[in-house]
Amino acid sequence: MFDRFHKYASPPYFHAFARRLSPWLFGLSAVLFVVGLVGGLVLAPADYQQGDSFRIIYIHVPSAWLSMFVYMVMASAGAVGLIWKVKMGDIIARACAPLGASFTFLALATGSLWGKPMWGTWWVWDARLTSELILLFLYLGYLALQSAIEDRRAAARAGAVLAIVGVVNIPIIHYSVEWWSTLHQGPTVTKFDTPSIATSMLIPLLAMTLAFKTLFAAVLLVRTRCEILEFEQHTTWVRELTLGAESR
Amino acid sequence: MSAAAAGGSALGAARAVFARDLTRAWRRRSEILQPLVFFAITVYLFPLAIGPSEQTLRVLLPSICWVAVLLSMSLTLPEVFAADHADGSLELLALSPQPLALLALMKAGAHWLTSAAPLLVLGGLLCALFGLDAVTLRALLLGLLLGSPVLSLIGALASALTVGLRGGTLLLALITLPMYIPVLIFGTSAARNAALGLPVEAEMFLLSGLSVLALTLTPWATAAALRARLG
Amino acid sequence: MKSLQEFLAMGGYAAYVWSSYALAAVVLAWNVVQALRREKQVLRTLAARARNRKDAT
């Protein structure tokens, strides 16, 4: 069984695998976006208190979840690369970073756009928003560190250390609304209870989250392919691949 | 190096690294003054910016002090590993049989002694000079005392990550300052509560907790960072 | 069913809601386009380099 996963650690195998899989993920993501957008913008009824502004949830919540999920992928891949010296770990971690930063930015921006009509303010210094902002800075620091170090493998390893240290921020973001009394809404879906949100509003939310997640996976595979080629540019298989691709 | 003279024990190496950093700092005494001057300038900018309202200044003073400490410390952090990296002794330290985490801890400790401690003293003096009351001043200084080890420890980690890089100081500040934010929040919260006459135990315990956490975890991360950069 | 006008107005919150969706569209699209374009560029650059090496030998 271990052998089944072991082959994915090989860059040429992963490259071919990513080539095959990403179109399907793009397609699946597109379908899920249609389902989520129609369900969220058209079918779901307006909220009793927030009116139609609550529909920002269909962008804000998936972005926020992904911002944390991508960070965990980045840190885990980095750890695999750092501790077990698996090159694919380094490669995947590097590929994750711009995506994670994008999702974090989107979460913060849509949060502000939602907060203005609801709370009357673009920003409030509570624990969740502050720690999400710190997450954005962590991503940016990681990206800056990667571009400053020329040797890709050394850069990936240094980045992995940074990413792993920053993992403490993730539970803080998630549990901040429980630990501190805060303006931000408490957990409505991920608590160990029946969700306190209407089903007609919940289904599009799940669809949009899956849409974001599959899109992330698809783009990650594309970026990983690029990183593999750059990491392995001096190998024969890359040379043959690029010459073959050109002649097509 | 005196590590060899100490018979190659871990503690001997630790003591040697610590002493060497302190000696080097002492020999360049004037360089210890520079971050202090920067700190003073930064603090002095605020009364000029805020204007004649003394009340506003006194309310903001602890926060100004904290931010100035954070900025001044991020400027001194490159030196933790820069000198050793430049003359090649960093690679020797990494290759030595002594635990690298312990040596990293000693370097962070030396940094605290030469950078953080003087800043705390000067910060206290300036705040007292600007008329900060005794209760708030005590909370401010205690918070700085309990939180500053975290600053040096995390700073040493970031310094290891960025050692020898072009534009390293800015990158180091970019990495370090977000990680300083929890310390900043708790420290200034303590000062604010003290000014209102509220108890500050919670913040002090949190700051101590952060320091202990940093003390136990960051040396290994710093060693890993050094190996990642030097390997 | 709502009219198109009602739909676009979003109960008065149009600016906030549509800005959010537009921002999301831009950010996500940029990520997709940038990734695909970069792949094309990398393949081109590495192919040129490989060709040069082949010609040189």
Question: What does this protein structure show overall?
Answer:
The complex is a heterotrimer of chains A (248), B (231) and C (57). Chain A has 248 residues and is mainly alpha-helical. Chain A contains nine helices and no strands. The mean pLDDT of chain A is 89. Chain B has one domain (2-230). Chain C has one domain. Chain C is mostly helical and 57 residues long. The longest helix of chain C is centred in the middle third of the chain and has 43 residues, at 14-56. At the A-C interface, helix 2, helix 3, helix 4, helix 8 and helix 9 of A face helix 2 of C.
| Shape by Cα distribution of chain B | elongated
Largest beta-sheet characterization of chain C: none
What share of the residues of chain C lie within helices? Answer: over 70%
Order of secondary-structure elements of chain B: HHHHHHHHHH
User: Mean of residue pLDDT of chain B?
Assistant: 91
Q: How many domains make up the 3D coordinates of chain B?
A: 1
Task: Supply the helix-strand structural class of chain B.
Answer: mainly alpha
Write the layout of secondary structure elements.
The complex is a heterotrimer of chains A (248), B (231) and C (57).
Chain A: H1 2-6, H2 11-43, H3 57-83, H4 87-119, H5 127-148, H6 152-166, H7 169-179, H8 199-231, H9 236-247
Chain B: H1 2-5, H2 10-27, H3 29-50, H4 54-76, H5 79-86, H6 89-95, H7 100-129, H8 134-161, H9 168-195, H10 201-230
Chain C: H1 4-9, H2 14-56
Feature tags:
heterotrimer, A: 248 residues, mainly alpha, 0% strand, C: 57 residues
The gist of it:
The complex is a heterotrimer of chains A (248), B (231) and C (57). Chain A is mostly helical. Helices cover 77% and strands 0% of the residues of chain A.
